[in-house]
Amino acid sequence: MKAQRTALILIIFLMAGATVLAQTISREEMIFLTAKWEGERFPDGRPKVPDDIVERMHHVTIEEVWGVLRNEGFHNQFEGNWQPIHEEVAVVGRALTAQYMPNRPDVADQIKQRGEKEGRIGNTNSWPIDMLSKGDVYVADGFGKIVDGTLIGDNLGNSIFAKSGNGVVFNASSRDLEGLAEIEGFNAFVKGWHPSFLQEVMLSGLNVPIRMGAATVLPGDIVVAKREGVVFIPAHLAEKVVVTSEVIRLRDLFGITRLKEGKYTPGQIDSKWSAEIEKDFSKWLKDHIDDLPVPKAQIQELLKKRTW
């Protein structure tokens, strides 16, 4: 009888836990969905790509990311046609996701009531902001809504930047363009701008897998938003993307340098390098290690792996 009572209490506890987590996903589910990530995680299970990798990601081009992801079999990680505040200000960081859907009153009321019980404050579009930490990028699927689909204005924009030091990517719109533009270092990649307020929209998921146009995004993905568009990098491929980009950058710089010097022809540089050129490249890396636009430690690591 005691064992049965214990089992019943456990079942009730698990059911209650499932109710609390219904709008998000459990840590176990997060780990399951991002199983290829073997590094540090946030308390909720979201992959925590190291700050060093995130910082180096600022120098990666969209094309470089695209090439690495395609080679790894990831064909649905890019979305274009954005309207950023500043074309020249990149947004790079770890994705914290939110999913919005057209409003359905009965469901929306349930979500709001549960949020109040969980201690969430304010309108539902502020809840993801409360969860942000430094380096996060607030990524939201607002189903492309422009009129009455403005997820933030300048007040929430200031709050986002204060908490994350970063910008946002919304498959929706925003308002208060002039006010948001005054937040130094902040940028928003959105699908449009409109003076209306957010209406007939409900928050249906926090830190869950979402669709951003043609891309699938998981919490903890690394976001790289630049003029060409936005790419979402699975956490377990972030370091490979960075290292590959750095190697390409060094090889391009070496090739351009040698072409200007007239040491090699364009045909030699634009085709598979000979052993002689590869050897010259290694020597050039050693000779210029303190002056190159890649961290010295990374060049040293690259040289360790080279056999010429």
Automatic annotation (TrEMBL):
SUPFAM superfamilies: RraA-like (SSF89562). It holds the Pfam family RraA-like. InterPro entries: RraA/RraA-like, RraA/RraA-like_sf. It comes from the Bacteria. This is RraA family protein. It comes from Agaribacillus aureus.
